[in-house]
Every structure is written in C-alpha cells, then in structure tokens.
UniProtKB/TrEMBL annotation:
This is Sigma-70 family RNA polymerase sigma factor. Belongs to the sigma-70 factor family. ECF subfamily. Residues 113-165 form the RNA polymerase sigma factor 70 region 4 type domain. InterPro entries: RNA_pol_sigma-70-like, RNA_pol_sigma-70_dom, RNA_pol_sigma70_r2, RNA_pol_sigma70_r4_t2, RNA_pol_sigma_r2, RNA_pol_sigma_r3/r4-like, WH-like_DNA-bd_sf. Keywords: Sigma factor, Transcription, Transcription regulation. Pfam families: Sigma70_r2, Sigma70_r4_2. Residues 12-81 form the RNA polymerase sigma-70 region domain. Transmembrane segments: none annotated.
Length: 174
C-alpha cells in the first residue's frame, strides 16, 4: 500500500504513532523523549521528496520503524560522545569562534522571519502546543492539561505545526 503525503501522513500518524511511541519508550525509558522521537520520525518521513516516498517506500510501517530505530541509535551515540568529553575538547571549544559570518547571519535572520510568519499563520492551539513543547520543554501531558485537550491531541497539534513550519521554511516539498 502506497501513501501520498498530505492526508496520508495523518493516516500514517493515526495508524502507527502509538506503536512507534511504545517501541521508543521501551528502548529509551522516557515517555517524553519517546514522544519527541516519534514526532521526529514522522518529520523525517514528511521531509522525503514525493518521488522518493512513492518509489522507495512500499511498507510505510517498516520504514517508520527503521527511521525510529536510527534516531534511537543516533541518540545513544550522542550520549556516548558526551560521556567521552575530554579536557582537550574544553580547550578547543574556547579557541573556536563559533559565531556565524555576515552572510550566514543574514540567512539566519531571514529564516527566523519566515518562521515567525509561519507561527503566526497557525491556529492558536497548534502554535501554543509547539511553543510549549519546543521552547518551554513541557511534555505532552503538561501541555494537554494547559490546553484542556488530550495528550494525543497535543501530538496532532505539534505534528501539524511542524509540517506547516517545515513547508514555510522550504524544508519539505508540498
């Protein structure tokens, strides 16, 4: 069964997000992190080009599980690298100038302006759910309590907001 992106991403989300979140939770032991990994899995799927999705994904469930597995592996590697931090790393961090150059700074300002505009285009609940999650670091349950909706609805709000912002920032194809 092949899926087109727009409405079928929602269908895929409804079909598989709970299973993927449970798998992630069993692997990482943290419900909020599992929810974030699951959302990132769907964002990666949405980020594929339409032709790539159509030609190469015959089994979306398997593909999503594979992406989730890779995200979990990347997370574990990142944590392992953080544990192997040395004094030399500290010195290198102090010596490197990490400030962006003028061209990159201009590019980042434009991107921030497009993001601000995209956030303004969102329905209030979607925008609030995304900002509470990504900026304030609140989990789905806490956001659900603040907005007076279910945690599942919070997931849907965040996915909708992420898809909208990604399209506006030209990170995914329409």
């Amino acid at each position: 069964m092949r899926f087109a992106l727009a409405d079928d991403l929602d269908s895929l989300f409804r079909l598989y997000h709970r299973d993927l979140q449970n798998i992630a939770y069993r692997r990482v032991g943290d419900r909020e992190l599992a929810a974030d990994l699951t959302q990132d899995t769907f964002v990666r799927y949405a980020g594929l080009g339409q032709q790539q999705r159509t030609e190469s994904i015959l089994n979306p469930r398997f593909f999503l599980m594979r992406v989730l597995g890779n995200l979990i592996i990347d997370l574990a590697r990142g944590r392992k690298r953080q544990g192997a931090h040395s004094a030399l790393d500290d010195v290198q961090d102090e010596l490197l100038d990490t400030r962006p150059g003028p061209e990159r700074l201009h590019e980042l300002r434009q991107q921030l302006q497009r993001l601000h505009q995209a956030l303004g285009e969102l329905p209030e609940n979607c925008r609030d759910a995304l900002l509470l999650n990504r900026l304030d670091g609140l989990g789905h349950q806490a956001i659900a309590e603040r907005l007076g909706v279910s945690p599942s609805m919070v997931s849907k709000y965040i996915m909708r907001a992420l898809r909208h912002c990604a399209r506006r920032l030209d990170l995914v194809e329409d």
